[in-house]
Design goal:
The chain is α/β, with parallel strands linked by helices. The protein is about 45% helix and about 10% strand.
């Protein structure tokens, strides 16, 4: 399998989504992809165990993408070797009445990972500059001072909100949370095929939502919003990675590889050692247990 370089997917300079491919070819077959993913899964699992014992860092994995882009299946496959205590998945839906009584970042603060753990945001705080930007009428439910009607939502409102998100991510990264953000870059034609498959396969019918078709009509608007959000919020402390998502299996390998390489940068994480006094008497304790 061709080597995967995380920097090839990392957003460092301004990007244009229409010029970025939605599929990455490395001439690997499905068996090779599965084998490579398994190797990375096992390494990540051991790394997470060490991180849990080290108890200094939390890791926030943010997944964004259009419907059917493969976020759910990636979570299932990439983290399947983790100790269940080490990873928590949060799928953020439309804010409920309690959440709407607070600012839009409140519920995301509550879901941040504990030290030593991973948290996966399946859809994230970026919905607040994506869905609400495509459908600004949703903002009215937030009861924000000075916003009495949709016309009050100016371009500066979105600029401010993205700056607030930058500040949020900078704050948590400075306090021990590693932030990695992945955009699943899927073609519109691939989404059409996946939606059609949900309708044609009875066992997948439950996944289909009429709302998916309605949102599909806003594809160009979403691409514009994604592009601007990524360009304005990809920072060294909270980078975006654009993942070609037309091939689900390859996308999983790429994301797992990136997470693994980023975890390797935390060089102070070491396997825990026994207390010296316990180590001195280890033979004694073994003898007692054998007796």
């Amino acid at each position: 399998m061709k080597s995967i370089n995380p920097d090839d997917f990392k957003v460092i300079d301004k990007i244009s989504l229409k010029h970025i491919p939605t599929e990455w070819h490395n001439h690997a077959d499905d068996d090779e992809k599965k084998e490579e993913l398994l190797k990375i899964q096992q390494k990540l699992s051991k790394r997470q165990d060490a991180m849990y014992a080290h108890n200094r860092y939390g890791v926030l994995i943010c997944l964004q993408g259009m419907d059917t882009s493969g976020k759910d299946s990636l979570i299932r496959e990439v983290f399947k070797e983790f100790n269940p205590r080490g990873v928590v998945v949060h799928s953020f839906k439309t804010p409920n009445s309690t959440e709407l009584e607070h600012d839009y970042l409140w519920r995301h603060y509550l879901a941040l990972p504990e030290k030593g753990k991973f948290a996966v945001f399946n859809r994230t705080h970026y919905e607040n500059v994506l869905v609400t930007r495509v459908h600004p009428e949703y903002i009215m439910a937030e009861n924000i001072p000075g916003i009495e009607k949709v016309e009050d939502i100016t371009p500066k409102f979105w600029e401010d909100r993205m700056e607030q998100i930058n500040n949020f991510e900078k704050h948590i990264s400075q306090n021990g949370t590693v932030v990695l953000k992945f955009y699943f870059h899927m073609s519109r034609e691939e989404q059409r095929k996946r939606l059609l498959k949900r309708l044609e396969n009875p066992e997948d019918n439950w996944k289909f939502s009429v709302g998916d078709l309605k949102e599909r009509e806003h594809w160009d608007d979403y691409m514009k919003c994604y592009e601007e959000a990524i360009n304005k919020t990809s920072k060294e402390h909270a980078p975006w990675f654009i993942i070609p998502a037309d091939d689900k299996e390859m996308a999983r390998v790429i994301v797992a590889k990136i997470i693994w390489e980023e975890m390797q940068k935390l060089t102070d994480i070491k396997e825990p050692e026994l207390d010296p006094k316990v180590k001195e008497n280890i033979d004694l304790y073994k003898a007692q247990l054998k007796e």
